[in-house]
Amino acid sequence: MDQIKVMLVEDDAVWRDQLTSFLSREHDLVVVGSAANREDAVHLARLSDAHVVLMDLILSDNGYDGLEAAMDILEIKQTKIIMLTGIDEEEAIMDTYAAGAVNYVTKAHFEDIPCAIRAAYNNLNYIHPDSAGVLVKEFRRMKREQRSKQLTSAEQEILRFIHKGYKQSNIQSKLHATESTIKKHVNRILKKLGTRSSREAARKAKRLGIID
């Protein structure tokens, strides 16, 4: 069986040694190099034939410089980068995937690292549970935002009134609009949301987060 070559980027020498020792117990994994900072990581990446780079998110006191190192490496060559960190923050997770990394594993789940490396090597879309929930949440937010943009502010306002139980005559009065104008808005709403009635549309808009 071919061995998967791994490059480590970690500023903590103790953790780097522990991780190297841990990975050496896996028959199909081999550490082919390590670096402790952004500059050395980029230099080593140019020379290394590693299949997967295991990159610490924070290499110094200068923010997420591990993320910057990952982007630098990806500009040089196509390789699989897994971010490894003690931080479990939504922003860090989203930034990781946006930068081109294939996975994000926290150090609290040390035992999951070999599985993540194998998945990356084999081009499997394995997303660690650390980040799966965050990605689902972001996807839902983006879909809500996308749907809300489909409706004008007037249409969203009408849906809010409908959801609160207002009758059409009351809505006309509140918005100082004619009956035909409200009907036109409602017809457009039904078409955009794919519903048959205004109340169904209001319930769907509420469920999707389009209206509060």
Automatic annotation (TrEMBL):
<keyword id="KW-0238">DNA-binding</keyword>
<feature type="modified residue" description="4-aspartylphosphate">
    <location>
        <position position="56"/>
    </location>
</feature>
<dbReference type="Pfam" id="PF00072">
    <property type="entry name" value="Response_reg"/>
</dbReference>
<dbReference type="Pfam" id="PF00196">
    <property type="entry name" value="GerE"/>
</dbReference>
<protein>
    <submittedName>
        <fullName>Response regulator</fullName>
    </submittedName>
</protein>
<keyword id="KW-0597">Phosphoprotein</keyword>
<dbReference type="InterPro" id="IPR058245">
    <property type="entry name" value="NreC/VraR/RcsB-like_REC"/>
</dbReference>
<dbReference type="InterPro" id="IPR000792">
    <property type="entry name" value="Tscrpt_reg_LuxR_C"/>
</dbReference>
<dbReference type="InterPro" id="IPR039420">
    <property type="entry name" value="WalR-like"/>
</dbReference>
<keyword id="KW-0804">Transcription</keyword>
<dbReference type="InterPro" id="IPR011006">
    <property type="entry name" value="CheY-like_superfamily"/>
</dbReference>
<keyword id="KW-0805">Transcription regulation</keyword>
<feature type="domain" description="Response regulatory">
    <location>
        <begin position="5"/>
        <end position="122"/>
    </location>
</feature>
<dbReference type="InterPro" id="IPR016032">
    <property type="entry name" value="Sig_transdc_resp-reg_C-effctor"/>
</dbReference>
<feature type="domain" description="HTH luxR-type">
    <location>
        <begin position="144"/>
        <end position="209"/>
    </location>
</feature>
<dbReference type="InterPro" id="IPR001789">
    <property type="entry name" value="Sig_transdc_resp-reg_receiver"/>
</dbReference>
